[in-house]
Structures are given as C-alpha cells and as structure tokens.
Specification:
The protein has 4 helices and 29 strands. The protein is mainly beta. The strands form 7 sheets. A 5-stranded antiparallel sheet has the order 26-1-2-4-28. This is F-box protein CPR30-like.
Amino acid sequence: MQRPRFELPEALVMEILSKLPVKSLTRFNCVCKYWCSSFQTPHFISEHHHYNLKNNHLNLLLRRYDGNTLQPYFSQLSNKKGKKKEVKQNIHLPFFKNTTPYVYGACHGLLCLHDPLEDKAAIWNPSTREFKILPPSSIQRPPYFSPFEETYLTLDDVYFNDAAIGFDSKTDDYKIIRFVVLTFVNSEEVYSHPHFLYQVELYSLRSNSWKEIPSPDYTPSETILGNTEPTLGNNYVDGICYWKTKTDAYLDFRRLILSFDMGNEKFSILPIPEFVESFLEYHVDLLVFNGSLGAIIYPSERIDMSFDLWVTSEGVWTKQFNIKSISGVVRPLGFGKNGDLFLIDKNDEVLLFDASTQELKKLEINTYLDHFRFSISLHAYFESLVRINGIQEVEKYVIRQSTRTESNEY
C-alpha cells in the first residue's frame, strides 16, 4: 500500500529556510524557481536577518595588511566556540589593489569600503559575496578665494576623512555619508600656507549617486596615530551614525559626539558622558555593543591596561563591566559574541578576553606578515541576503586558504 504524500505548507517551509545560513540558501537557489524568487523578497530577507540578530549569529572579519607584498586582505574568522577552528579563508578585493581600504559598517550585513586618498568606494556583502563599486563624486570643488591673501587658491589635495553606512527606513534606501577635506594653496608661492575646507557627501544606493549636504560645525576626530577610521569598526545604530568630535575653541577643549540621522539627513551634537576622565590620559572609542551605542575607555599609556565599557539607552549611560590589569595589550579591536573582547598586544598577537570566565586567550592567528599594527582591525556583521545590484566575487579572489598554523578558538 502506497503511503500518502505528506507536504508541509509553503509558509512553514519558508520559515524553516529563513533560519539557514546564506551559504545553504545559495545552494538551494537551484532547487526550484519559486525558492529562488522567494529568497529575494523583502519579507524573507527581513525574516532571515532578524533571526540572525535574535540568535546573535555574529560573523567576524579581520582586516589585515601583508607587509611583504603590500596587499590588503580580509581573514574570515570562525564564529563557533568550544572547538578549535581555522581561519575560514583570506579574501582580497581587487578594486582596492595595493591600497588599504578603510572599513565602515556594518548595516544589515553590508560593509562600506573606502580609500581615503582616492575617490574609490564600494559596498560589500560578505555573506552573498556581492560587491558594488560606487560611482565617483560629481560634486564641484571650485577654487577658493582667500580674503587674507586676496586671491583665488588652487585645490591641492582631496582627502576622504571619515564615512559611515546606514539605512533610511522612510525611503527604503541604503546611504553612505563621507566627510571630505579639501586643501587649497597659493600656486604662485613656493611655501604656501594651506587652507582647509570641509564638505559632506551623501550617497544613495537607490539613485546610485552622490549629493552634497550642509557641513556641520564639527567634524569627526576619530584618530589613532593618524588613522582616521573608526577604530572599532562600527558606528551605526537604528538609523543614526555616530562619531567622536571636539571643540577647538581656546580654553574650551571638550569631547562631544556628532550624530547623523539617515532619515532626515540632519546632524546633531551630544555631550560625551561625564564619567570620562582627563582627555589627555584616556582614549574613548565609540562602538556598537549588543545593538546599542557604547563607549570603551582605556588609558593612553600604561603597562597594565584596563577597560571600561559603557552603553547608552535613551540618553542614559550605564557601565557594563570593567576589565582590569591586562599586561602587554596595546589597544582593543572590538567585541564578539557574549561580550568577548578582542585585543591586540605589543607583539601584534590577537587575544580574546572571555567575559564569562574572565580569562585571556591567545588565538594563535598567524600575524607574522602583519607588519603594520594599526592596519589590523576587526569588523563584526550579521549574515544578510540584501541585494546591492553589484557584481559577484569569483573564487580567484580568495587569495589564500587557511592553514593549520592560522587557527583560532572563536
């Protein structure tokens, strides 16, 4: 006797599939046309992303720089604990050949990559391996008239100082904001005193174009030995981007927080938390922690480092935890799952402070080629199926598969 055929309702099938990793869903695209089209619907993409958020399925990328070949690349780290895992793979993005792109993000699993010295930017979805090169800016940068010198100055340099990627829920649009520093000089003088002007440019994925927006009175001051990228990788929370800034007024040097709302495209200024001590003695890095804006504070110079993490909710700052006396650590890289803190020491070794056991572990990630300590950065993101109308990476850009000497326990 033939058994009756049992079929699951399509809604239940889609709910089950929405809990699978992107790699599996990519393979299932060939099962049937219905599945393939369903995976691209806004509802399925949203359900899939929110499931990863709810279950904290965090993914980690370590941006690195090969000091011998001058080639930037990204190491994708394992995200499973309790078992020794190798670095999954090392990826080189060809658009940024022989340059070190700064990484800004993540927003809904998307990362913004930008070369600060050139008008080269891209959006990257590391889950789907989709890569979109952004068009160059068409914004005019005319000569500047200097009242002091009573002449027009020539544009000498353009520097893209800082950036962020975010989502505008009102228009269902992904946007990138970047700060542009323009340097003008008197071309008729040998030793001309430079004059700096600032612009702010906003990119829309929907229109695939840049536009200029009014520049605020303050500009980001995310600096660490001349590196102007956010040191902990992410500064976007619920439609708003954040940066450190400061006043430059005489006898009124204060730290502040600059924010930008992707929806109304307006800037705001927030006070830095009062718990921060002397700005000369402590670093303050903004970051995203468990979906909220946080600040990690650590001394500028000390043999044994300590770290305080504060998180804000509706304008109220609350101290989450304190890590005391970690010897040999240079700076934090960022947080992984469950509050685990990644650090880098004076030997360029990547360490993990386990928040649950209060233990410090050496991850044994091979860093012998990373001769530029401050080019190493950690970037966390949740898997996403968001399409960006870009091109697909090809396997030849996976430049070096992991070996047994490159391993970690995270």
